[in-house]
Amino acid sequence: MTGATTYTIEYFPVDALAWLSRALLSLAGVEYKNIFPDWPADKEKTPFGRLPVLTEIDPDGSKFVLAESRAVELYLAKKFGFLPKDSKQEAIAIQYHFQILDVCETFVFHVYHYKNEASRDKYLDRIKIFIQRHEPILAKSKSGYYCGDSLTLPDICLYYLYKTVTSCEDQSLNLFASEQTPAISKLAAMVVENPGIKRAFL
């Protein structure tokens, strides 16, 4: 057998739910191709009528197809070493990851969907609690990372949340002031230094 395993990410031509998967592939240094489907015409061609979809083809031609963004993220993170090897530490990393995604979701729902006081209050409540809990966790880390002394999935996810919130048009939603969240801001600065991160953005 010759050649290398190839990867495709099928999603719309935006970052959104596919960004973390693209980032993991970019950080792992593997080649991948973005496929932008003709939607909704291609909907029935996907496993569950939803995007993103990861397709992995091995040199022998065998194909592995996985849908659902969180499933794809966890699979790629584990495959390429962006989760701790210890099972308990892995569970803790996934716990952080899901908490960050929860804040991302409330932000997106408010900014792009509901756009009302209720959705705004829900987001602000969620991010305030998140900062109260996660800033001390990162402040205690000697490396500045969530887990151990290297980049893992929650670090990458936090960077995406940080970038999304700090660059939003309505800055009243941005609670990541560097003087109030120094550990979170430091981690975001550490992550963005990796060249693979920039390659993940469309």
From TrEMBL:
Q: Which organism is it from?
A: Smittium megazygosporum
Recorded hits in InterPro entries, A to Z, give:
Glutathione-S-Trfase_C-like, Glutathione-S-Trfase_C_sf, Glutathione_S-Trfase, Glutathione_S-Trfase_N, GST_C, GST_superfamily, Thioredoxin-like_sf
Q: Name one GO biological process term.
A: glutathione metabolic process
Q: Name one GO molecular function term.
A: glutathione transferase activity
Describe the location of the GST N-terminal domain by residue ranges. 5-84
Q: Signal peptide span per the entry?
A: none
Q: Per its UniProt entry, which superkingdom is the organism in?
A: Eukaryota
**Which stretches make up the GST C-terminal domain?**
86-202
* Name of the protein described by the UniProt record: GST N-terminal domain-containing protein
